[in-house]
Design a protein that fits this description.
Blueprint: H1 13-16, H2 29-32, H3 37-43, E1 50-53, H4 60-70, E2 74-79, H5 85-93, E3 101-106, H6 113-125, E4 129-134, H7 138-141, H8 144-147, E5 151-154, H9 160-169, H10 176-186, H11 190-204, H12 209-215, H13 228-242, H14 246-258, H15 263-278, H16 284-298, H17 304-317, H18 323-338, H19 353-357
Parallel strand pairs: 1-4, 1-5, 2-3, 3-4
Amino acid sequence: MESDSAYAHGRPLAARIRPQTIDEVVGQEHLVGAGKPLRVAVEKKHKFSFILWGPPGTGKTTIARIYAHALDAQLFELSAVSAGKEDIRKIISADTGGKEKVLFLDEIHRFNKAQQDFLLPYVESGELTLIGATTENPSFEVISALLSRCRVFVLEPLSEEALAQIVKRTGLAVKKDAFEWLMGYAAGDARKALGMLEGAQGLYGKVTVDTLNQALESPHLRYDKMGDEHYDTISAFIKSMRASQPDAALYYLARMVEAGEDPLFIARRMVIFASEDVGLAQPTALVVANAVFRACETIGYPECAINLAHGVAYLAEAKKSRASYDALLAAQADVREFGNLPVPKKIRNAVTKLMKELDYHKGYEMYDKESYLPDRLKKKKYLK
């Protein structure tokens, strides 16, 4: 790994601070900690094929390179997205001066069955030591013959502590609020975190919440603007239904109908309203709103105005509850803050031998009273 002044160099930040030894690897203690399998393999130069299964940005490429270096082997790196049989043939025929050949095949799940079958005999004979990397469950994506000749190691999303160490290595000044923003955005992916840091620093000369937001390229929904009157009327329409004022809601509906507003636009807003504002208080509201939308699709103006009026009166007079909508917002806030927290193993689907060996579904009981939320959120109550 390079020094803390690495940002000043020309290569991407993630490449500049990539660990070069097993001691520099951050996170994945269950694999690279003292006495753990990948550390032992590196230290003892144990030659074997394996698959690294885990989310993006958790160290798969880094571990593969460190392992190949430890074997003093010639490392060949391919992406299964673009590679094929001919690339494997070239590696097999390559002169490495007597060095062992290690193939790091990124996104191995993208290799089809025929390509995996072609690779199999070289792995089986030891002519190639294979390190596969995948974000997908290898039980489904790797043929059983190849899978049986590889050990599978599961990588976890990087913790906040691990990401904090990685950010510190960049030498960049990152305040607490910017770091927290970065953690929510990266969701355990070091590459995403480093990319955002590099973008903010490179574009604006500093890393703050504002520069991170500005560096983030987000798609923004665009709407065909038709003037303030359009937006004021649809706003008044929704607020009138929310306040249980059918007369006002029907008046604003009439204004939109007379102005030639697209009936599907109105009906679409009603479908949203049925779940957002009526929700659990009167679940049939969603059925009515969808029926109105369908009527507008099939009938059109002028008659579908009657269907719209029917639906508007129903929604305005319906009891209101935002419980399910508020619960969704609260859950989304936690997803943004904590990222994709690991699903408890007891409720993961165990349909293969590998998954059973990893204790998937172990201890599951129907009608279990224990919370199935991720461990960090066990006590959360979203629906109140």
